[in-house]
Design goal:
This protein is α/β, with parallel strands linked by helices. The chain has helices spanning about 65-75, 90-105, 140-155, 175-185, 195-205, 215-220, 230-240, 280-295, 300-315, 325-330, and strands at about 30-35, 40-45, 60-65, 80-90, 105, 110, 115-125, 130-135, 160-165, 190-195, 210, 245-250, 255-260, 265-270, 335.
Length: about 350
């Protein structure tokens, strides 16, 4: 069994500069990531992977995962503090908690009776394909949900950034995180969401500070005809006009779009040899939250976000990139006004 990995892709000190503010969060702003359906990510390297056949892996690793957990890992790798919360259960949940302890990432999860899921990620270096097989996760109880709500409301202070990320386990209604988001907003907390489907649709009613769908998620959410940049940018502006302060759309190798009341920015993707796409969108989300916390300009926010996602795909499994790697790619990201 492979040892659970707890290291960034490469070690480096944080040397980024502080930039002028577009958002003014409170001093000592804390980022809190909420992962209701975390996972252990088992990543296999399988040359010429084929269905309905015996496949032999040439590499294997385990990483603590789930979208919010991945965000906390990236924040930690670039020198930013966060608190990870959500549900953890069983031996897999204990392994995730232990890995976060080793990394020095603060966490405060609700322990549940079920077993935290294990997801399988298969990378074929010959065909350059990435296959994800994600378990649904064991159900959570009404008591578990009430405990997490109480914990979250105790953790989050006015001016903090709270991210709701990832899928919902069985037992958690799709509108639950939207209800929590509305309560947090009334308390002066900035809410971000990296969700899809019914959860994303529900949280829009809370008018979050930031949402970060990918192109296909936004297409499905708004029944868009395609994922062309013009279509996506118009949809993002529509969401901004509805009261959502910032809309970031991850586009895979195409880069990302960023919309706010000042308009739409586009950053083209940087070409690299990808090793693992697991957590690339989470890396982008982490950079967006970090940029908000550090008062980056909108242009530097998008540049950092795309550079972080780019650096991430060069790292194995869901391991986070170092700030040194991010800085290297940041200089290659070009941001332009889209419209």
């Amino acid at each position: 069994m492979p040892r659970l990995s707890t290291k960034a892709c490469s070690a480096a000190d944080l040397t980024t500069d502080r930039l002028h503010a577009t958002v003014q969060p409170e001093e000592h702003t804390m980022i809190i990531t909420v992962t209701c359906n975390p996972a252990l990510d088992r990543s296999l390297t399988v040359p010429q992977f084929s269905a309905d056949a015996v496949n032999r892996a040439t590499g294997s690793r385990l990483d603590p995962g789930g979208k919010g957990v991945n965000v906390s890992k990236v924040l930690n790798a670039i020198g930013a503090e966060s608190i990870a919360t959500g549900f953890l259960g069983g031996s897999a949940g204990s392994a995730i908690a232990s890995a976060l302890d080793t990394l020095g990432i603060r966490h405060d999860f609700v322990r549940v009776a079920g077993e935290t899921r294990t997801n399988l990620k298969i990378y074929d270096p010959v065909r350059t394909t990435y296959t994800d097989i994600n378990e649904p996760g064991d159900p959570v109880s009404a008591e578990d949900i009430a405990k997490l709500e109480e914990k979250l409301l105790a953790l989050a202070k006015p001016g903090d950034l709270v991210l709701f990320a990832g899928s919902a386990p069985k037992g958690l209604a799709e509108n639950t995180t939207a209800r929590w988001a509305k309560t947090l907003k009334k308390r002066g907390v900035l809410v971000a969401a990296d969700q899809d489907g019914g959860q994303l649709n529900a949280v829009l009613s809370a008018k979050p500070f930031l949402i970060k769908p990918n192109d296909n998620e936004l297409k499905e959410l708004l029944a868009l005809p395609d994922t062309e940049l013009t279509t996506l940018s118009q949809a993002a502006l529509q969401l901004v006009r509805s009261g959502i302060a910032h809309v970031a759309i991850s586009l895979g190798e195409r880069g990302a779009l960023f919309a706010d009341e000042q308009g739409v920015l586009y950053a083209e993707g940087v070409r690299v040899n990808a090793v693992s796409t697991v957590g690339a969108g989470d890396a982008l989300t982490a950079a967006l939250l970090y940029a908000a916390q550090q008062n980056f300009t909108r242009e530097e926010t998008l540049k950092l976000a795309v550079a972080t996602a780019t650096a991430k795909v060069t790292c194995p499994g869901s391991s986070p990139p170092s700030m040194e790697m991010i800085q290297r790619y940041r200089d290659q990201v070009i941001v332009t006004a889209f419209q």
